[in-house]
Amino acid sequence: MTGRDGGAALVAVPGSPVVVLVRPQLAENIGTVARAMANGGLFYLRLVAPRDGWPQEKAWRTASGADAILEAAEVHASVADATADLHRVFATCPRPRHVIKPVLTARGAAGELRAVAARGLRAGILFGPERAGLDNDDMAGADVLVRYPLNPAFMSLNLAQAVMVLAYEWWLAEDATPPRALMTNETRVATKRELDNFLRHLVDQLDACGFLRNAPKRPGMVRNIRHLFQRGEVTEQELRTLHGMVTELAIGRRALGRLEKDRDVDFPAAPQTIPELP
């Protein structure tokens, strides 16, 4: 999935944590990390001893427009130097280590990072080299470890994916987007009055054409028809379309009746078994 906000300038979101890439190996990966950071509202990027130095033109090629993050990136010689001004440090840990520290999921870490920012403190997240991740010395100065609950049979992530998961959870922790919405474009959800008006129209025509001619079953069939339309958010435009369909069917039925009368033609009888809606 792609898409940009029309070239809107990237700025730091207040309270956003620092992303620290420890000994990153490929410039292209640094660029894709910047892109993932921009997606999740993260801005501050620090590089610890990048293998091929910095800056690297290849990073800009894969950043997909997240240039401001790369241009503001800082380079440090060690993890201790990169985290010296931070109050809390989180370290991603893909595999079990002989370390005794609290372990959080990405979602749990996002909540903690938001809580740290709310107290006016600054936090950072360490991500290790692409090949092996952080070593024990890298994690020694961290307060908390972060592990993602992925498929235990395959937990491999590339560097940008690892950053994206945490960036997404950090953004989502205070995002107000409703979990479900209906895209109506230029129409709107129909009111119950409008829906009832259509259902009266539909039932009236179903009676006229004989679909509801089985008197004992008619009430249940009408209820099933109502349930069909009531269980979803039908839009006003859809109701107008359905009104038109029912009207045209009625016009066609009347025209067919006139043709039958004029020509005195015997048309096949309607089926005796009336299908019911489930």
Give a concise summary.
By secondary structure, the chain is α/β, with parallel strands linked by helices.
Could you tell me the radius of gyration in angstroms? 31 Å
The biggest beta sheet is recorded as:
7 strands, parallel
The arrangement of helices and strands along the chain is: EHEHHEHEEHEHEHHHH
Shape: elongated
CATH fold-level assignment of the largest domain = Alpha/beta knot
Spell out the blueprint of helices and strands.
Elements: E1 18-22, H1 27-39, E2 45-48, H2 57-62, H3 67-71, E3 74-76, H4 79-82, E4 88-92, E5 103-104, H5 106-118, E6 123-127, H6 136-139, E7 144-146, H7 159-172, H8 192-209, H9 218-230, H10 236-263
Parallel strand pairs: 1-2, 1-6, 2-3, 4-6, 4-7, 5-7
Helix pairs in contact: 1-7, 5-7, 8-10
List keywords for this structure.
2 domains; Alpha/beta knot; 278 residues; 7-stranded parallel sheet
Give a description of the structure.
- With 278 residues, the protein is α/β, with parallel strands linked by helices.
- The protein folds into two domains: 18-172, Alpha/beta knot, CATH 3.40.1280.10; 192-263.
- The protein is built from ten helices and seven strands.
- It has helices spanning 27-39, 57-62, 67-71, 79-82, 106-118, 136-139, 159-172, 192-209, 218-230, 236-263, and strands spanning 18-22, 45-48, 74-76, 88-92, 103-104, 123-127, 144-146.
- A seven-stranded parallel sheet has the order 3-2-1-6-4-7-5.
- Helix 1 (27-39) packs parallel to helix 7 (159-172) and helix 5 (106-118) crosses helix 7 (159-172).
- 27% of the residues are buried.
